Amino acid sequence: MLSRLGALLQEAVGAWEPTIDLLEAFVEHWKGITHYYIESTDESTPAKKTDIPWRLKQMLDILVHEERQQAAGEAGPCLEYLLQHKILETLCTLGKAEYPPGMRQQVFQFFSKVLAQVQHPLLHYLNVHRPVQNLLRLGGAPGSLTEKEEVQFTTVLCAKIQQDPALLTYILEGKKTVAQKNASKESTALPGEDKDHPHSKTPDGGPCGAGALTAQLPAETQEPDEGVGENNLITSLVGLCKSKKGRVALKAQENLLLLVSVAPQAAATYLVRSSPCCPAIVKHLCQLYQSLPTFLDPADIAALEGISWRLPSAPSDEGSFPGKEALAAFLGWFDYCDHLVLEAHPVVADALAKAVAEKLFVEILQPQLLHVSEQSVLTSTALLTALLRQLRSPALLGEAVAFLLGSEPWPAAPEDSPRSLCAHLVRHCDHLSDEISIATLRLFEELLQKPHEHIIRSLVLCHLEGRLYAARGSQEPESYEDNLDLEEDPYFTDGLLDAGFQPSAKPHPAPATNSDGKTAVTEIVNSFLCLVPEEAKTSAFLEETGYDTYVHDAYTLFQECSSRVGPWGWPLALTPLDPQEPERPFFEGHFLRMLFDRMSRILEQPYSLNLQVTSVLSRLALFPHPLIHEYLLDPYISLAPGCRSLFSVLVRVIGDLMQRIQRVPQFPGKLLLVRKQLMGHIPGEQLDHQTLLQGVVVLEEFCKELAAIAFVKFPPQGPHLHLPPTPEGHV
């Protein structure tokens, strides 16, 4: 009955002058709010317990109802009254005064609802733009009681900007744009306005005509200069991103990401030149880094995976360690910076990437990486590795690569001692501290998995180009003793033969090549599998260490690597050597030299260090470049005098092993015991020659891994290979 009566009453009112009734009601509600401040003497009553929230809601409902009755694009009398009488500015002042208590919250909510529910474009009007800016200044403070309402307000603004990206330019450059408007009134004043008093009268002299609307900002904004504009939206969003309330921070981050992704050219340029956007974001990143504990275990840093800015990791009792919360916050914000660079306008993305590189990489991380304190080097190296693991954006990756490797090629002479950061890091891989060596090797391993060609070219390929490691002007060797010059190696003349080293290590005859000149894959694979002598092998006693596991893993990793380097346009075959070209000195580069030196000491290094060295070499061997394949995986390459390859290094290690075996009583039994300990089959106990025995286990597994990599890089089902059956135990 009551609903029917209400409908009849609305119909009756609509038959007369609904706009007059709406305007009177709108004015009455506004006067009710102003009268409260005149009449009220109680300063302690919260705003939500007064009639202010109800009156604001009625004003909002009237504006929405009025708009539905207006023709599209026309502003009704109530909206004109709101603008002419600067109601939003007055509300903003009341919110700033926070009287009555909680008024700021009510103002934020009213602004949000008006901008969201009134479809007429409002942000172009000065009497909306100005209070919006003032209200933004009130927000963004850490720990504010109105954080929820502030982020809702910025969300509405960002939604409007998403619908009309040009609005971002107006909001950012507000004061400057208005000043430009005043300087050229002919192009900006609305038709019928008095240029000196645009709100004094309407075209027909009435009190609430169209001329009562505030002057609009220009529809077009030129390329921004270095002038000062309005940065309140950016400042507010960055402040809200730091909120301790997870949902508030996440929403603010989403809003900021939206702004930089939809920004037009003019706004993007302004964000870079004249706003605190990039400096504020990077400053917070550096502050989070500086808040980390001085000591963090590299193992804890490496174990904290899966940190995302959308799903930050909350510390839990399981796997907790001192500084975990701070580390998760830092990695989460770095992931957010990386995502911003990935999604932002290219102008903003490049500027933000350069800011991260300058402020975090160069000014903070580099001094710690070069510090004399081993603890500083260890922690910073592990943290840099974690950052590389999270990197996805090409721009930030490019800055990280330039920071680590530089843009210039490495010196080609072994006596050179470059002072670049990369040279220091390579030396750290051969540091007196095994922990620093392992951490830095992990850094390079992570770097090698990044889709940036300069990494592998700077570290390896620039030294292999020209194939100076291969002998010129010589015929194919008749046996692979000629390839390795074993007769000149004291390990083989005095060690191997005297030790009775005959079975597996006996050199194979030179393999046949197919029509493409490629060594048959079976011969290459068997060369690696037979490299370790039978008396030093133990994997055959345990079923879990079969060769097939390495083939499966190597295939997966090779596919990933091939997909990553596919766009780089690498050659498929080697460039033939010119037999008339004179030989020139070859230097494998500081990086490969360090790895080969480490590999030559595999029998005397800690187990964990050996695992990391072989892991980096395996990553290198996976690259589908013919130079890398030849230098690292071809046992039959004819080396130039004084040169070494990975296979020649391994052969010398085997010679050293055969001499050491003679000094270890009950070597086979102890070796099998150590393998079982490493696999967790039996409890670990300290044994004599444990480092040597563990090195032998790693050596055997590494040879199997290299064989598997060679196998998957030249699959037997390929059209260029016709493989004969292999002996049992071989591929």
TrEMBL record:
Residues 192-202 have a biased composition (Basic and acidic residues). Residues 182-212 are annotated as: Disordered. Residues 588-680 form the FHF complex subunit HOOK-interacting protein C-terminal domain. Pfam families: DUF5917, KELAA, RAI16-like. PANTHER family: FHF COMPLEX SUBUNIT HOOK-INTERACTING PROTEIN 2B, RAI16 PROTEIN-RELATED. Belongs to the FHIP family. This is Family with sequence similarity 160 member B2.
